[in-house]
Amino acid sequence: MENIYDVIKRPLMTEKSTNIGEKQNSYIFEVNMDSDKGQIKTAVEKLFDVKVTGVNTMVMQGKMKKVGGRFTGRRSTWKKAVVTLKEGNKIQLVEGV
Fold first, then answer.
1. H runs (alpha helix) in 1-97
2. Range(s) of the domain holding residue 53
3. Does residue 74 sit within a domain?
4. pTM higher than 0.90, yes or no?
5. Which is more confidently placed, 69 or 36?
6. N or C: which terminal CB in the chain sees fewer CB atoms within 10 Å?
């Protein structure tokens, strides 16, 4: 993948990800299923101008959902990445609002 916006889809802003960010200087992003750790690292470094020390990825399986009691469907499977930054670096997403 050549474009950094193809690698990183969006930041995940949940209560759990906010707590991880405060305690471990890590941020969680939804990423493309085909991207690897090296691509994620370079994309975050270029996009936010920070130094990345580690990237952990995991594939989140889509959940089964019922619609109207008769029909069942499945949500899409997606991939997330936990990006750890060097001490002193920060990403300003929506903090302080």
1. 4-7, 15-24, 37-48
2. 4-85
3. yes
4. no
5. 36
6. C
